[in-house]
From TrEMBL:
GO biological process terms, semicolon-separated: methylation
Membrane-crossing segments per the record: none
GO molecular function, one term: methyltransferase activity
Lineage of producing organism: Bacteria, Pseudomonadati, Pseudomonadota, Betaproteobacteria, Burkholderiales
Keyword S-adenosyl-L-methionine included in the entry's annotation: yes
Chain ranges of the Methyltransferase type domain: 57-171
Statement: the UniProt record of this protein carries the keyword Methyltransferase: yes
Protein name as catalogued: Methyltransferase family protein
A Pfam family annotated for this UniProt entry: Methyltransf_12
UniProt keyword list: Methyltransferase, S-adenosyl-L-methionine, Transferase
Length: 269
């Protein structure tokens, strides 16, 4: 992908932010800022990481930037579309799980009943809400969420996420790399400032080295691929795509493999 945002990219960001008009000025400003400064959503489309007609589960969906971005893609393709990007996916279903009621409400106001595909936002704690999830998804997305959960809970949520994958489905995961030195410390500092601004307090962050994330995901039966992120954006983060084998029954794989997966780091940071 060329430098983000490209001229067409700036148009997509403005269009996506406009989806938030029913959710208020803050939601619109936040969408514009995040989509402009964080290239991960552009990378998902530029590299065709979300298959056409996917059923998508988005864990820790925030205010629903992913569905807003996918809806924007459908609106803007092909007339205002970057020439080097593939045709965008049109999901068949989207479910977002979000712990923070205000974020979930912004997502609902902006998107539910307004997209061309069913879009459901559940206000729930992913540490509990996924135990009973029986639907199969082609894509499970977890972007910048797991470090807010205790180490054991991270593994349990990943197990649930893999169990929710249809055969051949993929987990798209972005996590911090605790072994990234000053960049990891910088990312954590920014995270804490944002937490203070949003909630008036900062909770512990539970960070693992990238190698440990890799071992954990491979231990759950996923074939792993990593997508390079631009060095100037979220330098301490890694974006991974884990694909479940076509023949795997995820129900058996995730739980069994996880028991012997990567060791739990000693302390929250
Ligand atoms: C940094 S934001 C990322 C939001 C979204 N994934 C994105 O990339 O725009 C992390 C989100 O995860 C949510 N979150 C944290 N713990 C969660 C949990 N246990 N269950 C569901 N959501 C959670 C937070 O409320 C927050 O909205």
């Amino acid at each position: 992908m060329t430098r983000w945002p490209s001229p067409e990219g700036a148009g997509l960001v403005a269009h996506a932010a406009a989806w938030y008009a029913p959710a208020g000025a803050f939601a619109q400003r936040f969408a514009r800022f995040k989509l402009h400064h964080d290239p991960v959503f552009a990378i998902l489309l530029a590299q065709g990481l979300v298959p056409a007609r996917a059923r998508i589960l988005d864990i820790g969906c925030g205010q629903g930037l992913l569905p807003a971005w996918l809806a924007t893609a459908s609106d803007c393709h092909p007339h205002s579309w970057p020439g080097d990007w593939p045709s965008p996916p049109v999901p068949t279903a989207y479910v977002g799980i979000e712990l923070t009621p205000a974020d979930a409400e912004r997502a609902r106001r902006a998107l539910c009943g307004r997209t061309a595909w069913p879009c459901e936002i559940r206000t729930a704690d992913a540490r509990e809400a996924l135990h009973d999830e029986r639907a199969a998804y082609d894509v499970v997305v977890i972007l910048d969420v797991l470090h807010y959960m205790e180490f054991d809970a991270q593994q349990a949520v990943l197990r649930d996420a893999v169990r929710c994958l249809a055969p051949g489905g993929r987990l798209i995961l972005r996590v911090g790399d605790a072994s990234a030195g000053w960049r990891a410390r910088y990312s954590r500092a920014v995270d804490r400032i944002v937490q203070w601004l949003r909630a008036g307090r900062a909770t512990p962050l539970y960070c693992r080295p990238a190698d440990e994330w890799r071992r954990l995901l491979r231990g759950m039966g996923l074939a792993l691929r990593e997508i390079p992120l631009p060095a100037d954006a979220h330098g301490a983060n890694v974006l991974m795509v884990g694909v479940l084998a076509e023949s795997t029954t995820s129900h058996g794989t995730a739980g069994d493999a996880c028991a012997g997966a990567a060791g739990v780091p000693a302390q929250p940071l």
